[in-house]
Amino acid sequence: MVFVWSVLGGYAVVLLIMFFAQRNLLYPAATDVPRLLDHGLPGLQSIETEPELGLVLTHWFHPPAGPEQPVILYFHGNAGHRGDRVPKMRPLIDAGFGLLITGYRGYGGNPGKPSEEGLAADARSVHDWLMAQGYRAEQIVIFGESLGTAVSVALASERPPAALVLEAPPSSIADVAAAHYWYLPVRLLIHDAWDSQARIGAIQSPLLLLHGERDHVVPVRFGRKLYEAATQPKQALFHETAMHSDLLNYREVVETVVNFIRDKAAKRQ
């Protein structure tokens, strides 16, 4: 009996830790401050938005090669920051596209604490900034990676883009958390469910979904689940050897993304 109570007590402690520390697990923000000069990329500049009164966030922007070229509004995953995504997204800049890499609250030296509500507000603020600069909604392509796909879907469901690209997307954060922590009642504990599956059916913009078959962080079954819930027009690339964060290391994936953006954004303008 003592053993049983000890086990139950230990389990209760784990539940409490997971409940109160879950945002630290979901948003393991890198706090080092990235520097523009480390990338040697002419035209790359810092811009600021204020999603809430007094909360000023820094993002990075590279203008498009021409006034009619698409602009990629990019939301990265839950680790790292705007600085370490520049090499990954460089092929899109080289293709002539504009690029705005969002700097979330609490990431890369930005103030604030991440949450679903907060990151959604950050996303609206960078979209507002692009519109204020004269870029049209028909030029803006929303591109999300991992957790950033949930941010992307939330924004696209409110503000239709020219196209939507989702890289390694979870159907919901609750689904992925439940798969990793199967021994806990995750769905009852979670604060930020990020339910993309519930939102994606409302999006009419062309969709390209990318997922690696060897993804052990967000298993590919969740990408397939989200794809099934999406409406047409849509296409998917499930790469047989890619894992979670290396999809854009493959030339054929980059070519697919560039061609998709050129085709879909051109048709919407």
From TrEMBL:
InterPro entries: AB_hydrolase_fold (IPR029058), Hydrolase_4 (IPR022742). The chain crosses the membrane at residues 6-26. Gene3D superfamilies: alpha/beta hydrolase (3.40.50.1820). Keywords: Hydrolase, Membrane, Transmembrane, Transmembrane helix. It holds the Pfam family Hydrolase_4. Residues 69-174 form the Serine aminopeptidase S33 domain. GO terms for molecular function: hydrolase activity. This is Alpha/beta hydrolase. It comes from Pelagibius litoralis.
